[in-house]
Design a protein that fits this description.
7-stranded mixed beta sheet; alpha/beta; single chain; 6-stranded parallel beta sheet
């Protein structure tokens, strides 16, 4: 638990740093941390014959991966999922990368502001494996799903649900949640269930629950670059309700493939839910639009260009072994 570990899984090598590793962004602690990461990656890269290193998280969290790539004379691919800490070392850390993958406009803008040429930036979208494609919806319930953290907006969801204009019959709401570890600073306590609300703790078959729903509600209070749960709901033919920040605005066209409300605004969310609860035809129409849009997020088409580009970068090696570096997994 106290060191930097490497493990093999599914044909890929993962380099991981335990969560308790220091998170200093400057000074000797930062230099020491990144030098240890570089040494561990270098040893693992030599052992496996690595031909490419892919670094997760922000550039300052992966300077060590850049140093290791230089020592091994192999490409470094930096993966940026959103805004990052842009200290004085961010620009040179990004300069170590042969390719920078970005998710969302904010990430691309942050990378460009730190001096990365547009030719080295590759925009990444989300994709779902066709073998794990969600089942098409059959029911008419509402769905909320997420990790139980303060910024996921479950309280906002329940407040809007309580104040929603009532219809006959009353709509039902499923809450699928994954609890945070006890004592985690972001952990949110599970609220009491209002009438018509059913809680599911870490459901073993989310697909079966989602199949009985017609509307998926996303209430994150932070702009999230990834929208996997939104895409899964769209692929299943659910009408997504998303805030006007983060990945939802990129994935959902208001009035065509879902509904967009003002982020963090209970009244805006309440009004949106009320409209959908009262109009079965609208729910169905937007669900069909969402299912059509979801077809563009199949992994076999979304990632073809990326895999081709990564393969070209790693073509100089004798073995097709890619090393993934992450702060923690």
């Amino acid at each position: 638990r106290s060191g930097i570990m490497a493990r093999h899984q599914g044909g890929l090598w993962w380099h991981t740093v335990p969560p308790e590793a220091p998170k200093a962004m400057h000074g000797l602690r930062y230099v020491n941390r990144e030098l240890r990461r570089a040494a561990a990656l270098h040893r693992t890269g030599l052992k496996m014959g690595a031909t490419l290193i892919m670094a997760n998280n922000g550039p300052l969290d992966n300077a060590g991966a850049g140093f290791a790539a230089r020592q091994l004379s192999i490409p470094l691919v930096q993966y940026i999922r959103g805004p990052f800490y842009a200290g004085r070392l961010a620009r040179p850390a990004l300069g170590l990368a042969s390719l920078v993958l970005t998710v969302g406009a904010e990430a691309r803008a942050a990378v460009r502001m730190n001096g990365v040429d547009a030719s080295k930036i590759y925009a990444v979208d989300e994709g779902l494996d066709a073998r794990q494609w969600p089942s098409l919806r059959e029911g008419d319930r509402f769905l909320w799903a997420g990790v139980l953290t303060k910024w996921k907006g479950l309280e906002l969801m329940l407040d809007a649900w309580r104040d929603m204009e009532r219809v006959t019959p009353d709509p039902a709401l499923d809450i699928c949640y994954v609890p945070m570890p006890s004592g985690h600073p972001d952990a949110d306590p599970l609220p009491a269930a209002p009438p018509g609300v059913c809680f599911h703790r870490s459901p073993a078959d989310l697909d079966a629950i989602r199949r009985q729903c017609a509307v998926y509600v996303h209430t994150s209070l932070r702009p999230e670059p990834f929208g996997r749960t939104i895409i899964e709901a769209m692929a299943a033919g659910l009408c997504p309700v998303v805030p006007d920040t983060g990945s939802g605005t990129r994935l959902v066209e208001h009035g065509v493939s879902g509904m967009v409300y003002r982020a963090g605004d209970r009244d805006s969310l309440r009004r949106t839910l009320s409209v959908l609860a009262q109009d079965v035809a609208l729910r169905t129409q937007l669900g069909l639009g969402a299912a059509h849009a979801g077809q563009y997020h199949r992994a076999d088409t979304v990632f073809d260009g990326l895999i081709e580009q990564l393969s070209r970068l790693a073509a100089g090696g004798t073995r097709k072994a890619w090393l993934f570096a992450a702060a923690h997994i």
